[in-house]
TrEMBL record:
Pathway listed: Amino-acid biosynthesis
Keyword terms, alphabetized: Amino-acid biosynthesis, Pyridoxal phosphate
Cited Pfam families: SKI, Thr_synth_N
GO molecular function, one term: pyridoxal phosphate binding
Annotated PROSITE patterns: DEHYDRATASE_SER_THR (PS00165)
Full protein name: THNS1 protein
HAMAP family hit by this protein: Shikimate_kinase (MF_00109)
Gene of this entry: Thnsl1
């Protein structure tokens, strides 16, 4: 198919195919045709026969940007308003609107779009084209639809300067702002690529962003993943075994025992792009951030939007999903407990099961293995139990937790969250054994191969060793900063510190990733309880497990000595030196310790500071905060509060991650509040707490789970690898066979 090149929009007398025009030109002007052919060939390498279709509100700059993109690609530029509608109707768009009215105008506009045909062109739609479903389906058949997303306040300013006070679809009594907001749902429905155009960004810059986005869209080969333990020479030899997002979601752990990370790192956002998200909802922020981290070849934008909407829809008690609350002075709480199982794990695990179900091949059943120190278990069980029935038939979950190493309510919750495809197994050991056992099972190729051959079942991971777990956590750290800007606490660009109760290093790693992507985080403060191996490591560079025994505490989710996600961070600061990471972790496995080089410790300490909190100080912090504010911290948040008080310099705001709802740790909370008589029944404990009218209220989801009388029993096994493997086989036989 051949195309006419033009630097200015071609005014078509009738809506015709550009290919027929090229055919006539080939016959009448062969020299001109040869030049056109070369122009077409240069653009063909980027878009082929597809059109680049620019979509957005009136005033988004679609026509101007389209002309610049067309010039850069040497391809035809078509403006639907000027080149299609007005030539079809023989009147201006405003005259047509006045003639037929809003509803009929949209229909007439859609009909004209349905008759239009082009290939290899840059097409600028009208602001109202996306409101006609059939017309947009027609455009998408041969086009890459790009949404130029300009903040509503900017659009209103531009329209005012253009003396436009009314647009298509705006009825009497409806403001311009309202109709612009209403239209966003249609833009979001149709786009393939989302381009943020914040502030007074120049059209030339937007055009470059469009071209870069199209290049990324057309080439998924660049977004590959590597193991934290792979050598650079090994990577070049393994090009036939590249791993993409879908692969790492499915596989969880790399075959060499390392963790998957993106080979080219995470995307960077400009300050203007972040600022364009200040007015956005949490779901809108999540969509933009995750689209940049997940290639559309793995999950298209429309499917990702569906997954995000399902994850953060009715399952959360707060419409803001992860709100920021002022605590006192320069301290703010990032409340991450409004999900169905009352911990920060819900922010990822209401989403990951749907991502997993979409990415895995249909030809195999999957058993998701989970090791939990408390909160992950119930969050995984709940998340996977919400899948569609057809997905639950091919995906099951087995959750291993330390039988005596979680709070009574956490255990009740994990037992209560068991469903037809989700089971919990208590292990007579600690979390470190559970996590190490799961890792060993994944890297036992004989065993995993046996499960595949014998039962047609593959294993997968839902712990934070799975890359997909980390991405939603990046979102809430970025969103918290944007919320402070939106609340006029700080101007954009001013730094904040974050303080995070840390065990497996996933949550704090996500904050570090948000910093890398452009969020102005100054320091990440790592808060430990009495299992303070991370605090010692960050201060000294020595990771030493020799002679250490896990101490059960009031904050069991951070009762961890081997922090899995630390490996990803070490790989990052070591400039992706997989051999060094392998050496360090082999030394940890064989000798129980390793030491960072001085230069790497200096890099680490530019990002991280650390402190720890005793059990006594944890309870005292809960009592003190409740006495002064009426707000109840959970035990993990109290650990972070104590460490924040120790280490903050009060020169900037500090965001404390409130990682769980206090309801999950009722005995410790009641003890901290100095309530003498404590009933051992978890439900009675929550009712007692509720009688104090605390802030926030007792968690509804937890109450509902504890009221259920379904699966009251669970299996318990010894800390033995063969016993765990036997449980896995039994589950597979019962569910899949």
């Amino acid at each position: 198919m051949f195309h006419v090149f033009q630097y200015r929009p071609l005014r078509l007398k009738t809506p015709v195919s550009l290919s027929s025009m090229c055919f006539k030109l080939m016959l009448s002007r062969p020299v001109a045709f040869a030049q056109i052919w070369m122009s077409w060939f240069s653009s063909h390498s980027l878009v082929g026969n597809k059109n680049i279709v620019l979509m957005g509100p009136p005033g988004a700059g679609k026509t101007t940007v389209g002309r610049i993109v067309g010039q850069k690609l040497d391809c035809p530029v078509i403006d639907i308003d000027d080149d299609v509608l007005e030539t079809t109707w023989n009147m201006s768009v405003s005259e047509k609107l006045q003639d037929v009215g809003n509803e009929q105008f949209l229909e007439e506009e859609g009909k004209a779009l349905l008759k239009f045909s082009a290939s290899g062109s840059v097409i600028s739609l009208t602001g109202s084209n996306p409101m006609h479903s059939a017309g947009m389906q027609h455009m998408k058949k041969n086009g890459i639809v790009i949404y130029l997303d300009v903040p509503t306040t900017v659009i209103m300013g531009r329209l005012k300067s253009m003396k436009v006070d009314r647009i298509v679809g705006q009825s009497p009594g409806i403001s311009l702002k309202d109709i612009l907001q209403f239209r966003k749902q249609f833009y979001k429905k149709w786009y393939d690529i989302h381009v943020l155009c914040g502030g007074d960004i120049a059209a030339e810059v937007v055009a470059e962003k469009v071209l870069d986005a199209v290049k990324r869209y057309q080439n998924s080969e660049l977004e590959t993943f590597i193991s934290t333990r792979s050598s650079r020479s090994g990577r070049s030899m393994e090009k036939d075994s590249r791993k993409y997002f879908s692969d790492v979601v499915t596989e969880g752990l790399a075959p060499d025992g390392g963790l998957f990370v993106p080979e080219r790192g995470l995307p960077k956002f400009t300050a203007g792009e972040w600022q364009s998200l200040i007015e956005a909802t949490y779901i809108e922020r999540a969509q933009v951030i995750l689209e940049r981290c997940i290639h559309p070849a793995d999950i298209p934008a429309s499917k990702l939007a569906e997954i995000i909407g399902t994850a953060y829809g009715e399952n959360f008690t707060c419409s803001k999903i992860a709100p920021v609350r002022h605590l006192a002075g320069n301290q703010f709480l990032l409340e991450l407990f409004h999900g169905p199982t009352a911990s920060f794990k819900d922010l990822a695990l209401q989403m990951v099961p749907h991502i997993f179900a979409y990415c895995i091949p249909r030809s195999c059943n999957y058993l998701v293995l989970v090791a939990t120190s408390g909160d992950t278990g119930s969050a995984v069980l709940d998340g996977f139990s919400r899948l569609h029935d057809t997905d639950k038939q091919r995906i099951a979950v087995m959750n291993f937790f330390p039988e005596d190493g979680v709070s009574p309510i956490q255990k009740s919750q994990m037992i209560g969250c068991q469903k037809e495809n989700a089971w919990s197994v208590g292990v007579k050991s600690d979390f470190d054994f559970c996590q190490t056992a799961v890792k060993q099972i994944f890297t036992n190729s004989d065993y995993t191969g046996f499960l595949t051959v014998e039962y047609g079942t593959a294993l997968a991971a839902a712990n934070s060793i799975n890359w997909a777990r980390l991405l939603p956590q990046i979102v809430y750290h970025a969103s918290a900063y944007l919320d402070l800007v939106h609340q006029d606490i700080i101007p954009f660009g001013s730094p904040v510190d974050v303080c995070i109760p840390t065990g497996n290093f996933g949550n704090i790693l996500a904050a570090l990733y948000a910093k890398m992507m452009g969020i102005p985080i100054r320091k990440c403060i790592c808060a430990s309880n009495e299992n303070n191996v991370l605090t010692d490591f960050i201060r000294t560079g020595v990771y030493d497990l020799k002679g250490r025994k896990l101490i059960p505490t009031f904050s069991p989710a951070v009762d961890i000595l081997k922090s899995s996600n630390l490996e990803r961070y070490l790989h990052l600061i070591a400039n992706e030196d997989g051999q060094l990471v392998t050496q360090l972790y082999n030394q940890l496995e064989n000798q129980g310790h390793f030491q960072l080089r001085k230069d790497l410790l200096e890099k680490l300490q530019q990002d991280l500071v650390a402190g720890w909190c005793s059990e006594e100080d944890c309870l005292a912090a809960i009592h003190s905060v409740y006495s002064t504010t009426g707000y109840i911290l959970d035990t993990h948040t109290a650990v972070a509060k104590v460490v924040a008080d120790q280490l903050q310099d009060r020169t900037c705001p500090i965001i404390i991650s409130s990682t769980a709802h206090y309801s999950k740790f009722a005995p410790a909370i009641l003890r901290a509040l100095r309530i003498a008589e404590i009933n051992q029944n978890p439900l009675s404990q929550l009712h007692l707490l509720s009688s104090y009218s605390p802030l926030p209220p007792v968690h509804w989801g937890l109450l509902e789970t504890l009221k259920k009388k379904g699966h009251e029993d669970h299996q318990v096994c010894a800390a033995d690898m063969s016993t765990l493997m036997s449980h896995i086989e039994t589950l597979i036989q019962n569910h899949f066979m």
